[in-house]
Every structure is written in C-alpha cells, then in structure tokens.
Amino acid sequence: MTEAVLKYLEENRESLLGKLEEFLSIPSVSTDGAHKQDVLKAGTFVANYLKEIGFQSVEIIETGGHPLVYGEWLEAKDAPTALFYGHYDVQPADPYELWDSEPFEPTVRNGKLFARGASDDKGQVFMHLAVCEAYMKTEGRLPVNVKVCIEGEEEIGSENLVPFLKNHKDKLAADFALISDSGMVAKGQPTMLYGLKGFTGLEVTVKGPNRDLHSGLYGGAVKNPAMALSHILASLKNDQEVVTVPGFYDDVEALPAEERQLMNEAPGENYPESVGIPQTSSEQGYTVNEHIMARPTLEINGMYSGYQGEGTKTIIPSTATAKITCRLVPGQDPQTIQDKIVDYIESHVPDGVEVSVKREALSAKAYKVDPDHPLLQKAADQLSEAFGKETVFVRLGGSIPVVESIDQLFNIPVVLLGFGTPEDNLHSPNESFPLDHFHKGMEVLVNYYHDVAQVK
Amino acid sequence: MTEAVLKYLEENRESLLGKLEEFLSIPSVSTDGAHKQDVLKAGTFVANYLKEIGFQSVEIIETGGHPLVYGEWLEAKDAPTALFYGHYDVQPADPYELWDSEPFEPTVRNGKLFARGASDDKGQVFMHLAVCEAYMKTEGRLPVNVKVCIEGEEEIGSENLVPFLKNHKDKLAADFALISDSGMVAKGQPTMLYGLKGFTGLEVTVKGPNRDLHSGLYGGAVKNPAMALSHILASLKNDQEVVTVPGFYDDVEALPAEERQLMNEAPGENYPESVGIPQTSSEQGYTVNEHIMARPTLEINGMYSGYQGEGTKTIIPSTATAKITCRLVPGQDPQTIQDKIVDYIESHVPDGVEVSVKREALSAKAYKVDPDHPLLQKAADQLSEAFGKETVFVRLGGSIPVVESIDQLFNIPVVLLGFGTPEDNLHSPNESFPLDHFHKGMEVLVNYYHDVAQVK
C-alpha cells in the first residue's frame, strides 16, 4: 500500500539530496551571535518546505531567541496525531582545520554525506519532511495527523521551547511524539531507544591573588589556584570512575539483572579503535554498556588557568576555572544533584583561595518508556525489516531534554526513531550521515506512518 | 671624596631621568618577534650610551637571537675589576587595558616612574651607566675597572648568554660580578641578597580520545583527560603545600636555626592585602619567609583543556595540558628534580589515557654566597647609610640563572645590589620604580664603586 510513496522517494533521490544539501549549507550555528541571520534562514527554509508540502498554519514563531517553526496537517480522520519534534540549529564547526571538506559545503564521499548537521539534526528532520512530501505528492494525504515543531535552539539548551510547549498545550495535543535526533548502536544495526539520561551542570572558579604573580617572589606565600582547582576536581571522581560526591548515587534506580544482561548483549562500539584510546574506562562494578546506558556520569568539559602560550611563563595564576556537566539516570533529580555537588565543593574550599560555583540553569530529568509499547514495537518491526536485522532496544547515554519536557507536559509516549551511527562525529569535525541510512530510514518512516495509523 | 660625583648626579637629575624615559619608551619585548627591531634599538641605546661615557671596545654582539652589548673601562690600575651584568629586554606588557598609563610612555605619578622595565631591569641598568657617566664627567676616571655585559634575552631564558660567557672567559675575567636586577624586601628597607633559587620546568599533556567527544555518547566508556590531569596534578603537592613527588626534598640543604630566625626577622610583605588573598599558604612546618627564601616550590603556571567559551559544551575533551615550574634551593640539582617529577608522572599514568611530558630545556641551580664577604658587607654599609636603616640579609625566592652561570664559570662572588620594591609590579601591569630609590640607589653605587676599589 505504500509502493507509490516509496517509488516517489526512489525516483527523486537526486533532487531530495540536493535539497538537503541546500539546507545543510546554511551555517545555522545557534550559539554564535554572528550567525543569527543564518539560523533564521534555516528556520525559513523549514517553513517554506512545510508550505510546499501542503502543511497548514505554518508559522515562524519569534521566541526572544531563535525562532521556532510550526506547521500542521490534520485531515487524517480517526487516525492518531503525531507531534514531530526536531531542530534546525547546529553545533559550531570549529576547529575548521580538522575538517576534510568545508563544514557548510555538503560533500558526498564513500557513501556518506559530510556536513555540520548532516546527522544532528538537519539530515534527520529532512527525512520526515521528504516522506511527508512523498505522501502528499502520491496519495494526496498523510496516513496520520502530524504537528511539526522544529526549533532553532537545541544546541544551546532549548530555552524557549518549554515555555512555547506550555503556552500551546491544547494546540500541540497529540497521541504520541516522534523524534529523530539520535542514532543506532552501530551502523546498520536497527535500534530503539527506550531511555535517555538527564542533565545538570556547573562551573567552578577558584580565585587566588588579584593578578598573576611572579612564581619566585610569591611561591611559598600564595596558594596556587590551579593546584587548588586540581585538588577540588580530583576529589569529585576517583580513578575507578566512581563519583565521590556524597549522595551522588542515592536516588539511582536499581538496575535489574535482566536489563543489565540485555545491555551487555547490545552491540557496542570498538572504542579503543573508534576514538583512539588505550582502553575503555567505566565505573567500578559496571560494564561500559551499563555505565553508558544506565549509570550517571560526571565530566569535566573544559578547564583553564594562567598561561597557555608557547614556552614558559613563571607565574602563579590569578584564577582557575572548570566546567562540569553530569548525565543523570532515572531516579536522580537534576536540582538535587547540582545541590549536592555545589555543597560538597563549597564545604571543601582550600585555605588561601576563594571558590565560586556558577550553576548552569539548563537541566533535565532522565526519561524511560516501556519498550513493549506497541508504538515502539511497530517502529522496531519496520526497522528490522528495512535493515534486515533484528532491532535492539537500548537506553542512551545522551540527553534530549525536550523528551522529558514532552513526557511531563503531555504525558504521551515519545518514539525515538534515530538513524544516525556512532561514526557520524556529532559535535566534532567531519560530521557525516551515511546515505544508505538516509534512504532506508525514509523507507522505515513511510511504512511506520502507515502502520501507526492503525494504533489508537 | 665622592662629593663632586654626587653633585653631578644631583645637578643632572632632570636630564638623567629624561634619558631613562627615552630608554624605557623603546618596547624591547624579547619574547615577541614583532618587537625584534625594538629590542635591537634598546641594545643600540645602551651601546651608544657606553660610548658617550667613554667605555672602550663597545660592541653590539650578534647571538643568533637578540644581541648582547659589551663595553669595558680598564684603566684603574691596581683596583679590582667588576663584571657588571644587566638586561635591556622586558616582559610583554599585556593585558594593556589594566595599565593606568601606557606601558611604553614613561609617566611619573606619586613619586614613582611607571613603565614596563622601569624596575626590571632597564631602570637599574641605567643607574650604573649614569654613575659611570658622573665619575667620568667629574673625575675623568672610574674608581674600579668595569666590564659591562648587557643582554637582550633575559626574559626569554638567556639562551645565548652562557655560550657567550664561556667563549669569552678570558676577556670577561673579573674579581667580582655586580648585578642590579632585584629588589628590597620592603620599600626603603635596604636589603642584601645572598641567595637565589634555581629553576626547572616541564609540561604535562594527557591525551585521551583522538577528538572531543559527546559526553553523553561516550561518558562511561572513555576516561576524561581533564580529570586524569587533575588527579596527576593533585598528586604532586598536597593541601599543606608539601610537594609529594618522592625524593623531591632529598638533597635540600638543612636550614640552620639561626638562619631561620634571621629570615623570620626580615620584614615581609602583607600578602593578604598586597595581592588580595584570604590568607597566606606555606609549606607545613615552615613560615612564609622560610618557604619563599629557602624551601623549594612547585607551581602550576598554566592549565588548559576542552571548552573555554561562554556557557556549556558537553564534551569529553581530547587532551589536557599543564605547565609546571619548580624553584629550587641549594643542594637540589635541576636535572635530578626534573627526572624525579617526570619519572613519578610517567609511572602513575591512569589507565585509558596516554601521558607525555615535555621537559623545559631552561634550568638553573640555586646560588648562595657567604653573607660576611667584604664585598657584600661594604655594599650593606652604603645601603644602610643612604637609606638610614640597617640592611637586612635575605635569600630570594626568584631565580637569576646568570648568577649561577657566573658562579660556575668564573668562580667569583656575585654582588646582588637590588633597588626595586615589592610594589614594583614586575611582569605585571603598572610596573613602576620609586624615584627616591632611583636617586638614593645611585648615591649607594657612587660610594660602593669608591669603596670596593680598596678590596682586593
């Protein structure tokens, strides 16, 4: 019953890829004020495409930050309504010199499309739009009702998304949410995500002397802020990857033996090879898969103090700063975890320095859905069919804060249908998306849109 | 017997200050290639001044780096010969925005001359040249033989100085060396330095994954290099300021009780006030004065990893680096100490990362001279006389590597006659030199040149 739609996609491969490349060539870097107009341009691209397809009430909605794009098609009587979410903004592309082709000049090499945003998330957003186009051009209708909400601030924390969702709860009401902003555990290995991690963050600054000091004249009188920061950071996590902040694990939900087993059966990346490390490191008592999927983490994302240039500058630096984020699991409250870390740091300030902690406003709870839900099972079936391999069910180490917000606000299941791969270099130079995932993924979406029309 | 010389200095105050300001207005920043011509210009200024005074064999000597300036006056029969060393290069002036007047537009405010190099070391080099001018203009001769050697690479490690000293050992032979590149323990408190610290350095880099990674997708599989570096750094020095590298203190010369007492009697800076810290920190079991003067230090001079911009970037950084230098005391060999730190770090590499250590080539042994030596006692007497206060004998926490080189190559006493103050902001914005120290200091030099003519 979906032959015509699939044929349309097949026959229009070239022009659809060209259109995606046009989308990817817009440098919609949301974190960089210099790209504000580019972000708007990418949003406008989405809005125009929605109109072309035949969506109604298409709007570019101002938010105070970067705009949201909304559109809806609601003529599938008796069929369920999907709320499709995605984002059209991208991470910064620097360091540019590490890219083999320009990040905003999409290039196909070895069956992959290279560009910033190819996988995260423009490429995957585009797949849904192209599938809708194919349905409309062939059948003149979609099998389900679709409300599309594509934001431009995902890479900077989706600050304006939740207020928008809250303020338009009735308008956005749906039977389920559909998001393609994730990946498979391995290339060609269909994967259903049934859980995501939460998130909290902070920045620690150790303030020592009021200026950089001569290390000879002041060494022995003045505590070194970089050394004091090292002591603080080293006290947060031990060498066995166990977070040593008191109470950090208190509310972590126990991990049933059978779920652990499933996690360990899920194919894993060959990390030493894929990222060039001597060996993996995971929390004492847990495997890498278990730690990534179901145990919380605490990571230093950045750290700086004093002289960073060539050679030597014999100073005691004035300050030292570290940025820290945690990924959280079901049971952990982001605010409580942030409090515990801040309290611990503030109650262990070394003598001779001052310590200030800046709390990151952005946070999210972890999310988990029943993997046996028919909406997930139908997606898994189509994935298995298209990729010729049994779909695995996994939890993700990453966070998609909007998922938790949708869960809380609408109380509907969220289907995370991700087509990326671990080799996509998300947030890194040479981001890419395999073309076979792009094409097979659209096939999955065509059939899934068809199948879920029956679920109510 | 020195009345005429002192009167000359008195009568020519204005013009001498003007000439020093001309010297200070040349931005002879040796570390910055953009200032190469300025460094040469400052060297030329020195050479021209020496010729004007009546020095012979004045040369600007190419070194491969910045040139050395040499000149000599050797007509004081039967009198001893002084080897006067100084430097005409300066530290970079950035951050410029923290200066209250332009760093290379010398300005007098509140009795101080503000300029980069005012104290370190152009101002103090100039005092000797002006005193020689005064002697030549009044007496037609100097009381002692003087060999002048002024380099342009002190602030970048004096790489070419030692080869020059070695290659011209006979030409440079002297009875003692004279250096004014240091300061007093407090403004107006005459001070004789009888010891300096040595120096060694290294840079530690922890290499993790081959690129910055998404902290959600890889947290739990990949060791964080910034955290691994924090563990390494925290293992080098404890919270009581004791260096915990095995054997670090093995060769440190014992500190006699009476020397400790003298050190503690020396007036100290009010550090919490002068540099804005909650309290001082010194090695367990030692006072601040003892630690600064006679105990070795290990300082982190700079540290960097991952994301340093605004807000959050949820990555596991690819690498983390720290720059470390140590100040050493008599007994410690720089090479041995460097070896011990490198061995310790290399034998404690956390699993899952690689660690590389870059050894700083630049190093120096500590230096100490008998404080009862008549050359020091005569200087102390003149200092006490001019400043109206008993001279204190102290050891410096800083390093002047040339002192150790002169000691080793020539085996002569080095007289460190410093006129700076702790408020001079060496290596920092708003470097200054008090005018009364400038004038009284020249008075000291006039009488000292006269007095040491008798010492043989």
TrEMBL record, chains A, B:
It comes from Salipaludibacillus keqinensis. GO terms for biological process: proteolysis. The keyword Hydrolase applies. One of its GO terms (molecular function) is metal ion binding. Residues 194-351 form the Peptidase M20 dimerisation domain. InterPro entries: Bact_exopeptidase_dim_dom, Cyt/Met_Dipeptidase, Peptidase_M20, Peptidase_M20_dimer. It comes from the Bacteria. Pfam families: M20_dimer, Peptidase_M20. This is Peptidase M20. The lineage of its organism: Bacteria, Bacillati, Bacillota, Bacilli, Bacillales. Keywords: Hydrolase, Metal-binding, Protease.
